[in-house]
Task: inverse folding
């Protein structure tokens, strides 16, 4: 991880992971050189994901974006839903093979 990815990781820990220290947070960094590629942040929680919980994570995401100047995509799932509904998808494989777990 380079300095920039280390800085963004620290901000994600401080703002997003702090909401639920037991949640699994995985970061996918852009692979290409496109100008508008976003960092993807996946949050897997033991809780049922509802609007209120998603809003808390979105607020935390905005704080990370403001402090870092980097655009993020945030995906929040319950662990059970993620493993049951997405285990056969390419993004599931990519997240678990290429992602950086915090």
Result:
């Amino acid at each position: 991880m380079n300095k920039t990815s280390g800085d963004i990781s620290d901000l994600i820990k401080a703002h997003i992971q702090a909401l639920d220290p037991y949640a699994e947070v995985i970061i996918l960094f852009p692979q290409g050189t496109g100008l508008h590629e976003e960092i993807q942040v996946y949050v897997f929680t033991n809780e049922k994901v509802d609007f209120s919980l998603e809003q808390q994570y979105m607020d935390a995401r905005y704080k990370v974006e403001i402090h870092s100047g980097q655009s993020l995509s945030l995906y929040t799932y319950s662990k059970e839903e993620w493993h049951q509904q997405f285990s056969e998808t390419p993004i599931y494989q990519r997240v678990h093979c290429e992602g950086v777990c915090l």
Q: What stands out?
A: The chain has a mean pLDDT of 90. Residues 6 and 12 are 10 Å apart (CA to CA).
